[in-house]
Amino acid sequence: MELNERQEKILKIVKQHGPITGSKIAEQLSLTRATLRPDLAILTMSGYLDARPRVGYFYTGKESEEVMTSKVRNILVSEVQSVPILIKQDTSIYEAIVKMFLEDVGTLYAIDEDQSLVGVISRKDLLRGTMGSNDIEKVPVSVIMTRKPNITICYPNDLLIYAANQLIEKQIDSLPVVEEHDGVDKVIGRVTKTTITRAFVNLME
């Protein structure tokens, strides 16, 4: 995050005189406490400053790169996950191809009658399913999908950095985000390479 001129001045004052109250900072800048409030809030939320009641603001010692790294390491999957695209495991390969095209996604998640995750279907799976003499309007995706226990999943409270590492290590395009209900893994989201890239871009902005 790029700080504006006034925020840089606030940081300099706090580094030199902290802990220092917001009123004292305002005095040194010849501004009102109300005028500084948004800047102090941004600096505190960004991790540059910390504040304690009846003590004031003090510098955390973190530089911008450290603040960014800290934020990246603390993003949860639940904060950035996108909507999963689900299909029944008896859906035909042809219908799955149409679904993937219309939803503009690279992975579909197959579920059973209990809405439990049973398989993952990638573009490569569908391509393989169209080869040979397969009647893609009749053959179900259950024939070509990746099944448990070979499915890599993540949970809403997992760190995004963990999900990113899983995508790299397993060389896959997405992870289903699941929650367990009565022994059933229900898909509530997905994390993709695009999801992670968007999260990093949002942080930088």
Walk me through the structure.
There is one protein chain. This protein is an alpha+beta fold and 205 residues long. It has two domains: 5-63, Orthogonal Bundle (Arc Repressor Mutant, subunit A), CATH 1.10.10.10; 77-204, CBS-domain, CATH 3.10.580.10. It is 44% helix and 20% strand. It contains nine helices and eight strands. The chain has helices at residues 5-17, 22-29, 33-45, 64-73, 77-80, 93-103, 123-130, 160-170, 193-204; strands at residues 49-52, 56-59, 86-88, 107-111, 117-122, 146-147, 174-181, 184-192. The protein has a four-stranded mixed sheet with strand order 3-4-5-6. Strand 4 (107-111) and strand 5 (117-122) form a beta hairpin. The longest helix is centred in the N-terminal third of the chain and has 13 residues, at 5-17. The termini are close together. The relative contact order is 0.13. Residues 80-136, 145-205 form the CBS domain. It comes from Salinicoccus jeotgali. This is Transcriptional regulator CcpN. Keywords: CBS domain, Lactose metabolism, Repeat, Transcription, Transcription regulation.
